[in-house]
């Protein structure tokens, strides 16, 4: 697709909306290849008017005529006159039996100009194998007629249609999943075997041909309140939209493609696909996501209960040292609870760490210094972090901020800074540098007191975060603690 995107972007001949129309064409032409049982090649004129293969699609309903990739190559001499004739006439041009370049296989080639606003933007060639001598089935004849009708619409600028569904929801119906051809009144003229099977799973036991698809569908719906508003326009083939119907536990995805000849609609194609298993799996994922969020919510509640019990116990302690120990444990438990609270509010197992740490950073400084006047400042962005990374990092920051306030700013006011910088390391992995600095008394005579808090910090940084930690004097007074780590899930 790089060649396609580059040539479309650099072309000076395209008008407003032309590039988007060609992108829409290539995004939907697998349907044409499947219906025509043929390879499709899109030829686009370069700036010097030489045609270049811009894209190629192979049919999933038949074998390919081209095993080699020739996208980006100039057009072959034997094909060039046919493509130029189609571009000039703005009609479908057919060749006689032709030999594939570098092959002895015979094929039939058709050139279809893709016309928009009266201008030929590109030419599609279809390449169909002629080596089979058997008579084509009714299915093949119907499919090829459908392909011809759509390609004829392309010469009139009526296909592809900007109103066609472009959403990425899984389960979009394909030709092989089931096809119905309707007349202008919405009566089924032809139903492929897979299309018949799909409606039988919904509960329709009769033949579809000769019946109104709208009436068939209406008779299968049990709960009319759950009907998609677009359903009537899809099952009558009036609009190029997509919808879903559900009955007896079966979900059917439908896509309509109106067939037009100029301004008149003469019929429609309806692609259908049984998406019951896809929707069941999606529902399972939604249920699992809800369960995981509920687990995080309950863990958060339990941790808050533990923190409350520790707070109650600390009030009963007569030993000042024991009381401080329980209060520190309470803060650590509350930090972990904050991460689980964040996880309980989203679907992804990632944490918006900036939002979390904004609350935690200020709270850690205030709790550690209820009688001191400590300012907090934060710079940089952490971004989203995996949950198994966020918990230990939040604990580390909590301990280092507490340590900066209790020891660096002991019995005095001051400022604690928190900085974050994300970048690519030498291995091209996301990495993070975190700094916690204060303007306090500085490092105590070249060594650091190894209390329980700093032991926790060293353990978390090395074992859980896989990073490094370094203490250094801050220019202008105080201490800087620098953490460096690569960012990837540890589990």
Automatic annotation (TrEMBL):
The keyword Nucleotide-binding applies. The keyword Transferase applies. GO terms for biological process: phosphorelay signal transduction system. GO terms for molecular function: ATP binding; protein histidine kinase activity. Pfam families: GAF_PdtaS, HATPase_c, HisKA_2, PAS_4. It comes from the Bacteria. SUPFAM superfamilies: ATPase domain of HSP90 chaperone/DNA topoisomerase II/histidine kinase (SSF55874), PYP-like sensor domain (PAS domain) (SSF55785). Residues 294-489 form the Histidine kinase domain. Keywords: ATP-binding, Kinase, Nucleotide-binding, Phosphoprotein, Transferase, Two-component regulatory system. This is histidine kinase. It comes from Arthrobacter glacialis.
């Amino acid at each position: 697709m790089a060649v396609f995107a580059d040539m479309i972007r650099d072309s000076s001949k395209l008008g407003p909306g032309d590039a988007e129309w060609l992108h829409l064409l290539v995004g939907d032409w697998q349907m044409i290849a499947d219906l025509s049982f043929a390879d499709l090649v899109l030829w686009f004129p370069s700036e010097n008017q030489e045609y270049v293969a811009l894209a190629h699609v192979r049919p999933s309903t038949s074998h390919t005529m081209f095993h080699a990739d020739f996208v980006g190559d100039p057009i072959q001499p034997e094909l060039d006159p046919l493509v130029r004739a189609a571009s000039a006439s703005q009609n479908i041009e057919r060749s006689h039996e032709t030999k594939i370049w570098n092959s002895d296989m015979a094929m039939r080639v058709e050139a279809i100009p893709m016309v928009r606003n009266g201008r030929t933007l590109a030419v599609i060639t279809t390449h169909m194998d002629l080596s089979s001598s058997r008579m084509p089935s009714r299915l093949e004849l119907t499919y090829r007629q459908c392909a011809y009708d759509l390609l004829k619409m392309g010469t009139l600028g009526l296909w592809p249609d900007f109103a066609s569904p472009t959403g990425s929801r899984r389960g979009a119906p394909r030709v092989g999943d089931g096809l119905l051809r309707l007349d202008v009144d919405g009566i089924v003229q032809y139903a492929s075997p897979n299309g018949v099977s799909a409606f039988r799973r919904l509960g329709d036991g009769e033949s579809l041909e000769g019946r109104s698809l709208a009436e068939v569908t209406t008779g299968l719906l049990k709960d009319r309140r759950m009907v998609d508003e677009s359903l009537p326009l899809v099952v009558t083939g009036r609009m190029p939209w997509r919808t879903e119907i559900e009955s007896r536990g079966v979900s059917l995805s439908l896509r309509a493609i109106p067939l037009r000849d100029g301004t008149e609609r003469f019929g429609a194609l309806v692609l259908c696909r049984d998406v019951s298993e896809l929707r069941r799996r999606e529902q399972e994922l939604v249920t699992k996501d809800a369960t995981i969020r509920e687990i995080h919510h309950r863990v958060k509640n339990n941790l808050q209960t533990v923190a409350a019990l520790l707070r109650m116990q600390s009030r009963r302690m007569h030993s000042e040292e024991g009381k401080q120990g329980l209060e520190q444990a309470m803060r650590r438990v509350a930090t972990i609870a904050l991460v689980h609270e964040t996880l309980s509010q989203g679907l992804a197992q990632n944490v918006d760490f900036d939002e979390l740490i904004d609350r935690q950073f200020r709270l850690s400084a205030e709790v550690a210094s209820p009688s001191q006047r400590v300012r907090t400042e934060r710079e940089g962005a952490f971004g989203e972090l995996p949950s198994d990374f966020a918990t230990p990092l939040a604990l580390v920051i909590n301990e280092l901020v507490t340590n900066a306030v209790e020891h660096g700013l002991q019995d005095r006011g001051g400022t604690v800074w928190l900085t974050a910088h994300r970048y690519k390391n030498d291995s091209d992995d996301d990495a993070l540098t975190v700094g916690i600095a204060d303007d306090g008394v500085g490092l105590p005579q070249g060594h650091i007191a190894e209390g329980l808090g700093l032991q926790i910090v060293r353990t978390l940084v090395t074992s859980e975060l896989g990073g490094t930690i370094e203490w250094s004097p801050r220019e202008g007074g105080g201490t800087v603690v620098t953490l460096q780590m690569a960012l990837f899930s540890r589990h």
